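User: I've been trying to design a sequence by hand for this structure and keep getting stuck. Would you show me what you'd pick, starting by listing the structure so we're on the same page?

Assistant: Good idea, let's start from the same input. This is the structure you sent:
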């Protein structure tokens, strides 16, 4: 599994647009699947920020919490 995740991360680094755009609380994020896991990240200009990696059942809720905290910190 580790090898598959690292391979997907390298693919994201080479082509950040491969992840599916997310909506709602994750509207600025993208997600790329390595079943049963999802890598959630944000692409802003040429900077990729990886938010969270977890099982599909948990990743979106936790990523939304992280993104919300991160946006608050950026505004301060």
């Amino acid at each position: 599994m580790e090898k598959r995740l690292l391979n997907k991360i390298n693919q994201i680094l080479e082509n950040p647009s491969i992840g599916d755009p997310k909506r709602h609380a994750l509207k600025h994020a993208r997600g790329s699947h390595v079943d049963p896991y999802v890598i959630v990240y944000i692409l802003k200009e040429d900077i990729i920020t990886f938010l969270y990696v977890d099982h599909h059942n948990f990743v979106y809720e936790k990523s939304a919490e992280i993104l919300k905290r991160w946006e608050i910190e950026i505004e301060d």
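That's my pick for every position. To get oriented when you compare it with your attempt: The longest helix spans residues 56-75. DSSP finds two helices and four strands in the chain.
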